Amino acid sequence: MTTQLLPEELAAVRFGADGLVAAVVQDADSLDVLMVAYMDEEALRRTLTSGATCFWSRSRGEYWVKGATSGNTQAVVDVRYDCDGDCLLVLVRQEGVACHTGERSCFYRSFGRGTAQAPSDPPARSGI
To answer: Would residue 113 count as lying in a domain?
Structure first.
């Protein structure tokens, strides 16, 4: 998926004081939430024009493309913005794992199970 960022759409995105907006990355087929990262305007443009997820690393102060070094790539299916414009939803087809720990999703731990839970343990369904 590649698309052009329209000026009125860009104006609807409310980047924070740091110039960033949270981007929730979700599997387009299973709808599992895979990870959360941050984008600035340029990362959003790169994501839309390349079809690969591009983020701004707050810790390293640089752009990074998911899978560029690990091979665990994300092919963008759709990018949406919420009603307030302060959060993005990026639907992807994940190749490999999304988490740097080797887990499919960064959200493999649940509260109430202790911090020592093994990454391979799937999160318990809470019924919430």
So the answer is: no
pLDDT in tens, 46-100: 999 999 999 999 999 999 999 999 999 999 999 999 999 999 999 999 999 999 9
Q: Assign residue 108 a region (left: φ > 0; alpha: ψ between -120 and 50; beta: otherwise).
A: alpha
Of the candidates 26, 46, 23, the one whose C-alpha atom is nearest the C-alpha of residue 36 is 23
Q: What is the pLDDT of residue 124?
A: 52
What is the radius of gyration, based on Cα positions, of the chain? 15
How would you class 51 by CB atoms within 10 Å of its CB: exposed for 0-12, middle for 13-18, buried for 19 or more? Answer: middle
Bridging pattern class, strands 62-65 and 33-39: unpaired
CB 66 within 8 A of CB 55: yes
As for how many domains the chain has, the answer is 1
Task: Report the predicted TM-score, pTM, of the whole model to 2 decimal places.
Answer: 0.86
The structure tokens listed for 100 are: 């740097």
Tokens, residue 14: 């409310």
In a domain, 124, yes or no: no
